[in-house]
Every structure is written in C-alpha cells, then in structure tokens.
Amino acid sequence: MLNRQIRATTAGDSARLEVETFTSNRGLALEEGLIFEIGRAEVTGVDLDEPAPFEPRLGGLERKDPIGLPGLSEPETLRHYVRLSQKNYSIDSGLYPLGSCTMKHNPRLNEAVARLPGFADIHPLQPQSTVPGALELIEDLAHWLMTLTGMDAVAMTPKAGAHGEVCGMMAIKAAIEAKGEGETRRIVLAPDSAHGTNPATAARLGFEVRSIPARADGTVDAAEVERLLGPDVAAIMLTNPNTCGLFEKEIVEIAAATRNAGAYFYCDGANFNAIMGKTRPGDLGVDAMHLNLHKTFSTPHGGGGPGAGPVVLSGRLAPFAPAPFLRRDENGLRLVERLDEAPYSLGRLAAFHGQMGMFVRAYAYMLSHGADGLRQAAEDAVLSANYIRASLNDLMSQPFGDRPCMHEVLFDDAWLKPTGLTTLDFAKAMIDEGYHPMTIYFPLVAHGAMLIEPTESESKASLDLFIATMRDLAMAARRGETERFLGAPVYAPRRRLDETRAARNPVLKWTRPPPQPV
Ligand SMILES: *Cc1c(COP(=O)(O)O)cnc(C)c1O
C-alpha cells in the first residue's frame, strides 16, 4: 500500500491504468477487513451497568476469562455490514445469468406479504389451533404445486432442492422395501449431464449409481435406458429440461420403460421454470420431483439460508411421504405428526413443517401471476434464452448443434481453442464488464461449458446490452487480445483466487496472527 504502483497495460486499442491506492479502496468501492481484525474486545456499542453482585449457580463451570468477542461502536458496526453487503453481487444489482440456477427477480410484493405479522410473527411450536390461516396457506400452496405438476401428493418439509432429492429418493427406497425388493434393487441410473446432487443423493442412500451416456444430440436415448433397466434397478434420476437446456423428447417412453421394469422415475425439477404451465410432469409419468421455490417461484436464493424444496409425488409414492403432513377432516386442517396415523411414512425429515416465509412468498408469486402469468413466465424465459442463443451463435460454439433451447443456452469452448484462452479466462473478463459470469464447466458433458440462463425477468434492453458485451468480448478473444482475458478481473476487489485450494483446504476459522516483531 505504501509502495504506490502505477502499471499500464495495453489491451488492444484501449490503454488501461491500474492504480494501487494507499487505502486499497478502489474509487468508492471500499476495502473491508474481518470483524475480528477491525473490532477490539475492550470496545462495545452498548453501555450497560455493571451487574449487581450475585452468586453464580453454575457449579464452578462459569467462564473465567474474557470472551474476547470483537466490539465495535454502532457507526462502525453499521459501516462494516453495509460495506460487506455491497460486495455481494445480487439479482438486485444486475443481470445474473447463472445457468441451472434461475436467478429471477424476487418481487417486492412477496416481501410485503411475508412481513404481515400473521405470517412473520408465528412460531412453529405454537398450538396448531392458533395458526389455522398459516395451515390453510400451506394447503393452498400444496394444491397449486400439485395442480401445476399434475401429481397426487406433495411433501412440504424439504429445505432445498438437494434435500427434496433426498426426500423423494427416500420415498422410493421405502416403496421398494415395502415390496420386499430392498435387497435386490440397488442401482440408480443417472445421465452424464446430471447435476452433482443427483448421484450424491443416490450414493448417500446406499444406492450404486450407474451413468447413462448422453446421445450426440445431448439427450437421453430411451432404448439405452431400456438396455440398462433390470430387476436390480431401483430408480432413474432425470432432469427435464436437462442441464444442457434441452427437452428430453423421449421422456414418456423412458417413464414407461422404467415403470414396466418395476423401478421409479425421479425427475429433477430444478428446471421447472421452462415448462411451468405448459407441461405437467405427472402426465409424463414422473413418480417424484422436487420444486426449488427459490428458482421457479421467485423466493430469494439466500446464502444457503432458509430455502424450500417441496417434492411432488405420484399416487404410487404418496403413502411413503414424510411426516408431518396436512390432513383435512371434520375438525378442519391439522398436521399429522404421529407415525401410527401414517404407517408407511418414511418418517420425519426435519424438526418442523417447511419454511413458512418461503411458502408465503411462493404463494404470493403464484397468486399475483395467475395461471396465464405463470405460463408466460415460462414462455418468456425460453424466449430470452433463445434470443441470446441466436445473437451469439455466429461467434460462440454450441456443443449439440445449432437448434432451439429451452430456458438456458449451452455453449462450449471449441470456438476458444484457436485463441489459447479458456472458459475461465472468458468468465473472468465478464467480471470487469460488470457481469456475474454464467455457470462454467457444468454440465460436464460439454467441454469448457458456458451455461447462460437469463430468465424472464430481464428486459430486452438488458438482454441487448449483455449480448453486445458478450460479442465485444468474443471478438476481442478472436482478434487475439489475450491481455484483456489473462489478467482479468482487473477491476474486482480481488483478482484470481486459488479456488481449488480454497475448496480443498477451507480455512473457516480466524486465528489471531502472531505478534509482529517491532
Ligand atoms: C439447483 C439444482 C439442484 C439443487 O437444488 P438446491 O436447491 O440448490 O439444493 C439440483 N439439480 C439441478 C439441476 C439444479 O439446478
């Protein structure tokens, strides 16, 4: 910092100045240390009286040393968290084209409704008789989820898509065991293009995962599935539209073959945004499918925070749904908590019945859109992705040929080969342009994959600027202006991090650095 440095790099025709500032701030983007680094244990933002003398009743277990928490004044605390929040790129900051994640706008109407005291201030341990409205909302949401998917039941407990997969696959396992086939049906089929959570879920539940190779056109071949099916197969896990952004055309044949072989069909519903209001998975022969409310139904993605991934189930699997679940009888709605009322239930997956805040937001989204609005959201999501595809495919290569996609468009790195640049270099240069990169290197079936999902919530102007930026970058890459990519990101607060080391050797605990010799 004291050694100020000015370095000029020439990238094509635009000379760039990179200045290292005294403060490490860049313009108005301020550096921020960890709270442990900036806080001081002897400082606090509150002024409490010393406690009156008292007799400890902890039997000598009370803490003797100072707890050492970092203290900050109120303005310091406020600035710390505001600066941190400004480092967080979000859908409220700009276009967020992360494929397979459906980073759509979170309507503020949802937030207003979720903050109504009747929803926000209730507690899961309150007697059920005091929250009939909340139970009714959950029942209504469940009704519309079943209606949209054409399925017979829905488990509302799961906290995320991956948790929904576990729930659905546990229901399948319970169904197989109820038929006395638990020992023989040990295999789960999943295509090469599957999201990592699919094989991870199957393996976690003790199944052996066998992969279905992708066809040259990026979809699954029903004949190939039929060849792999047998009395040892428990289930197939398939995403539709798949992670290449393509609709699995033979899904009905695949479902029928799976059922005929005595196995179950788990559909990964993360991409439901592409088909909502157009196609019902129940009509396609699906047995279980999770819905990521934070993808299709516009609830915030959170940082691994409160999420919801309800799982819709076919009649074949409904008896195995987890407890608790809602039942309406002569006394009205109630949660069935006791397993003697649900003898086939797979049991309890979590302490409470789902995430109320997410349910309210998703329900508000459905009601404010209506059936026509939900269908239009799916249509516009597909239209936006195809607009990007058609606007970039003269410069960038598509792994499975030039044909329409669903809600996300997949490019590979074949077009980058002659430039010597990688998908990672291209993605890093997008950060300098103010764009969060698309999903890269997933799905694994495309070499150097770039998966772009704009969603329906971007305006045409926003898509046009994104396309123009991508074209500018692509042409620079083709012209051999490698400096613009290899050094990127130049304008981000941090440059290239060692992501592999961070993942392999995560340092999650701050330790006080040793005192520096004077
Ligand atoms: C997002 C996603 C998942 C996992 O969902 P989470 O809610 O993140 O746990 C599973 N499969 C696919 C295809 C996804 O895109």
From TrEMBL:
Query: Mind listing the UniProt keywords for this protein, alphabetically?
Result: Oxidoreductase, Pyridoxal phosphate
Task: Give every Glycine dehydrogenase C-terminal domain span.
Answer: 377-474
List the lineage, top down.
Answer: Bacteria, Pseudomonadati, Pseudomonadota, Alphaproteobacteria, Hyphomicrobiales
Supply the name of the protein.
glycine dehydrogenase (aminomethyl-transferring)
Q: Which InterPro entries match?
A: Aminotrans_V_dom (IPR000192), GDC-P_C (IPR049316), GDC_P (IPR020581), PyrdxlP-dep_Trfase (IPR015424), PyrdxlP-dep_Trfase_major (IPR015421), PyrdxlP-dep_Trfase_small (IPR015422)
Q: What class of enzyme is it?
A: oxidoreductase
The task this protein performs is described as:
The glycine cleavage system catalyzes the degradation of glycine. The P protein binds the alpha-amino group of glycine through its pyridoxal phosphate cofactor; CO(2) is released and the remaining methylamine moiety is then transferred to the lipoamide cofactor of the H protein.
Origin: domain of life: Bacteria
Query: Which is an annotated Pfam family here?
Result: Aminotran_5
